[in-house]
Design goal:
The protein has about 800 residues and is α/β, with parallel strands linked by helices. It is about 40% helix and about 20% strand. The protein contains 29 helices and 29 strands. It is elongated, with a radius of gyration of 36 Å. It binds adenosine-5'-diphosphate (ADP), aspartic acid and magnesium ion. Magnesium ion binds next to loops.
Length: about 800
């Protein structure tokens, strides 16, 4: 025989009930059908009960709502004569419900007995109507009220099963019954006085499992609204997928830790008889679903699933007087037991100085009273502190039978969580190692589940979430490159790169699911909201996404003030903005320190030489113990462009103007032409070489005449270049006369750094530096005579965006 249980969604609409009937009608074997209440009805019933208890008349409209849900189903699925019969049944049940709720309303009291009676209405109605519908369709079916055979104690809402009596009743009923199909309501039962009791929320699964055991069923089918037990809750983890095979123990652990798809007590009765459970989707019956059984051979997966329980409170009992004193934990557990408080998680420090327990948040107040009362004497004597209660927590758990034979799983779990700034409040691992669980903040649950899911199930695919500020030349190119490289990144780098936010100084746009990059400009215009740096930062924190990267494509001196905050939240920072690295040494050092402390990349390769791997190369030299002795470099793509194009035909003014329109200079060209930009770059290289140095320690021999140096606006500056044309011509003629090239060079030697225009003769490696190229010569202990040379395009939006892109990818390898 087959026992098939159909959940709330499965019987939640006329269309779904038709599917249920098809599934059952096609079975060759005799079937027992257990049904839940119509989806949402149990919740409505309990809501009505609470309203009535609190003296609120709204319970009446809830009853009407429940009545309407059922009338609609009857109308749609039954023919007229049967409709009448069912409507009569419905009105009797609704009348009884009304009476009970009215009693609760008048007394403002909701005893368990009434609550169970109210809650049971959903299953009483659904099972009877589906029975009538199946009968109408000609199926050979009997109806049995579960309350006549499933017996419990009198803890009405969460009643304990009387196994012997129940198994005896179920067996003898089915021995006598000859129908092909029998339908029963799930969830409901009765006590020795034949008062209605229930098996706890989600208890219909348990009803089915009890029957499966009693009749030695071949299989227990749980039909629900998802295609099996998933690697994580599919509502929170989009990438979750059904687990094909799973052991009873694993399924039990997952369900105990919140995988609601199966009610935890369900597994024991079928495990005793080794009856397999199959979880299937009523809406997609062709999908395989999950099989829960004893032997899950040949499956080498270590972690089978990740689950979580929300609304947890953590209780900590600690005190110096606890060490080595026997009986403390016994008294603690007893105090909780006497109040019927269910413990979900325990850890104890080996010093016995503290014990940590997780319970349901709703019981925290009761627990605090009970425990403080239990240890009243010790608390007065300061041997034990009053119980500490923390709320807004959740438990997440990794589950798998094979975890015990693999090292490094907990290491990986905690590293992944740590890297994503998920703070762990407590940890527990059973000695069987089937389960590793941790208590974390509720706000971090979604991020933690997704992070762990990616780490353990997604073939090392990593999702990177970008928050991009600055959409000028560079920003636009970056977004375009990311759009173009999407497929490549996924296939070759196993990276899913999403841009979650785009902002300039006026507007910002956020989309938690990733902005559509084919249409981002229009989207930003249409749906962008006024941007400001604080609200941008707050929104990034609120979204709390894993592998978040803040990307600064601006030259703003305000944005770097936020870098430290991002790093402290384990959000990587990638910047082409040089301000942070070239302001005070203390600030620079602090960001480097925070990056190390939070194990979060702060990358700025494009600060020097755009996309050229200058900083990365330097970092590798230093990390392997080399020391920089001397640096010679042409670091300004813009100045190189300017001096390469400055000739008899093109005046200095014309060339500077062109460099600006082509995007080779900073928005304010004075930053380039005064040498400040090059000073910042050599400063950064020196700091990255391990030298403690400030900008004003760098000598700057400006080639600009005083008339240009002292201008107050970009416009005046550009005008001055026209007026001072003679000065620049003189520089050029002098170079020509000496058969030299003019290059703006940054140098570090004998502990001193300087920048300035130099005459370079044709034997020097700088002589043939084309266009907007950069070149760096590193002389180090290892590269003493022949320097290490890096040369290539050192300015331009394309290469800079590429460099930023490279840094972003590097954050993924942290
Ligand atoms: P039913 O009414 O059919 O008994 P439930 O709502 O009790 O259905 O259980 C199914 C729900 O369990 C799914 O819709 C899903 O949201 C939730 N769920 C939580 N964790 C998991 C998981 N690991 N696998 C599948 N479903 C899960
Ligand atoms: N209807 C009950 C509930 O919602 C039992 C069940 O669906 O399993 O809790
Ligand atoms: Mg359920």
């Amino acid at each position: 025989m087959i026992v098939s249980k159909f959940g709330g969604t499965s019987v939640g609409s006329a269309k779904n009930i038709q599917k249920v009937i098809q599934i059952i009608a096609h079975k060759k074997k005799r079937s027992v059908v257990v049904v839940s209440a119509v989806g949402g009805v149990t919740n409505l019933l309990l809501k009505a009960a609470n309203k009535a208890k609190n003296g609120k008349k709204e319970y009446i409209s809830i009853i009407k709502e429940i009545q309407k849900i059922h009338i609609d189903l009857i109308d749609e699925l039954l023919n007229k004569p049967n409709q009448k019969n069912c409507e009569e049944f419905l009105s009797v049940q609704i009348q009884a419900l009304n009476d009970t709720l009215n009693g609760v309303f008048l007394l403002k009291d909701l005893p368990g007995k009434s609550a169970a009676k109210i809650a049971s209405t959903g299953e009483i109605l659904s099972s009877y109507f589906i029975f009538e519908i199946m009968k109408q369709q000609g199926l050979d079916i009997d109806f049995k009220d579960s309350r006549e055979i499933i017996k419990t104690n009198s803890t009405f809402l969460n009643a304990e099963l009387n196994y012997d009596q129940t198994y005896g009743n179920v067996k003898s009923y089915f021995e006598k019954n000859t129908n092909k199909i029998v339908i029963l309501p799930g969830f409901i039962s009765s006590d020795s006085q034949n008062e209605t009791t229930t098996l706890g929320r989600g208890g219909s699964d348990f009803t089915a499992s009890i029957i499966a055991n009693a009749i030695d069923a071949d299989i227990l089918e749980i039909w629900t609204d998802v295609s099996g037990m998933y690697t994580a809750n599919p509502k929170l983890v989009k990438q979750a997928r059904p687990i094909e095979q799973i052991s009873y123990q694993e399924a039990m652990e997952l369900s105990h830790f919140g995988a609601k798809v199966i009610y935890p007590p369900t597994i024991q009765p079928v495990l005793d008889k080794e009856i397999p459970i199959i979880i299937k989707n009523t809406l997609f019956p062709q999908e395989n679903g999950t099989t829960i059984s004893k032997n899950v051979n040949g499956n080498r997966t270590t972690v089978k699933g990740i689950s979580h329980i929300d609304d947890i409170a953590l209780l900590t009992l600690e005190g110096n007087g606890m060490i080595g004193v026997p009986g403390i934990s016994k008294r603690l557990f007893e105090a909780l037991f006497l109040k019927n408080i269910n413990i979900k998680f325990i850890t104890q420090a080996s010093s016995e100085h503290s014990i940590c327990i997780a319970i349901d948040k709703s019981e925290a107040h009761l627990a605090k009273e009970a425990v403080d009362q239990q240890f009243e004497y010790e608390i007065i004597q300061h041997k034990v502190n009053p119980l500490i209660v923390e709320k807004d927590l959740a438990i997440i758990a990794l589950v798998g039978d094979n975890m015990k034979s693999h090292q490094g799983i907990s290491g990986k779990m905690f590293r992944e969580l740590g890297d994503n700034n998920v703070n762990i409040r407590a940890i527990a691992q059973g000695s069987t190692e089937k389960n590793i669980s941790a208590v974390i903040a509720s706000k971090d649950v979604k991020k933690a589940l997704n992070t762990l899911h990616a780490a353990f199930f997604e073939d090392h695919i990593k999702q990177i979430n970008l928050f991009v500020v600055g959409i000028g030349n560079v920003g636009k190119k970056l977004i375009e490159q990311i759009r173009q490289q999407k497929e490549f990144l996924l296939n070759s780098q196993h990276l899913i790169m999403r841009i979650i936010a785009i902002s300039n100084s006026k507007v910002m746009l956020f989309n938690e699911d990733g902005i559509d990059l084919s249409n981002w400009e229009a989207e930003l215009m249409d749906n962008g909201v006024r941007s400001d740096l604080d609200s941008f930062y707050n929104k990034v924190i609120e979204l709390n996404l894993r592998n978040s990267v803040f990307v600064d494509n601006t030259a703003s001196d305000l944005l770097p003030n936020f870098y430290a905050n991002y790093l402290k939240q384990s959000i990587s920072v990638v910047a082409c903005n040089k301000i942070a690295c070239s302001s005070s040494y203390v600030d620079y050092k602090n960001l480097k320190y925070l990056s190390r402390k939070y194990h979060t990349p702060y990358l700025f390769e494009t600060n020097v030489g755009a996309g050229l791997p200058i900083i990365d190369t330097l970092n590798n030299l230093i990390a392997s113990g080399d020391q920089i002795i001397k640096i010679q470099a042409v670091l300004s793509g813009s100045l190189n462009f300017i001096f390469n194009n400055f000739n008899a035909k093109n005046s200095f003014y014309d060339v500077v103007k062109k460099a600006g329109t082509e995007g080779y200079t900073e928005p304010d060209p004075r930053i380039d032409l005064s040498g400040v930009d090059v000073m910042r770059k050599i400063l950064i290289l020196l700091r990255e070489s391990g030298k403690e140095i400030e900008l004003d320690e760098i000598e700057n021999n400006s080639f600009l005449p005083p008339g240009s140096l002292q201008t107050e606006s970009v416009e005046n500056f550009m005008d001055s270049l026209k007026h001072e044309a003679g000065h620049f011509e003189k520089l050029r003629n002098n170079a020509e006369k000496n058969q030299c090239q003019l290059k703006y060079v940054a140098e570090y030697q004998n502990g001193k750094a300087k920048v300035g225009l130099q005459l370079i003769d044709k034997n020097h490696p700088f002589y043939n530096l084309d266009g907007k190229d950069n070149i760096v010569l590193f002389f180090s202990n290892r590269y003493k005579d022949q320097p290490l040379i890096i040369k290539g395009a050192g300015a331009g939006a394309d290469v800079t965006a590429m460099g930023i892109f490279g840094d972003i990818i590097r954050t993924g390898n942290k």
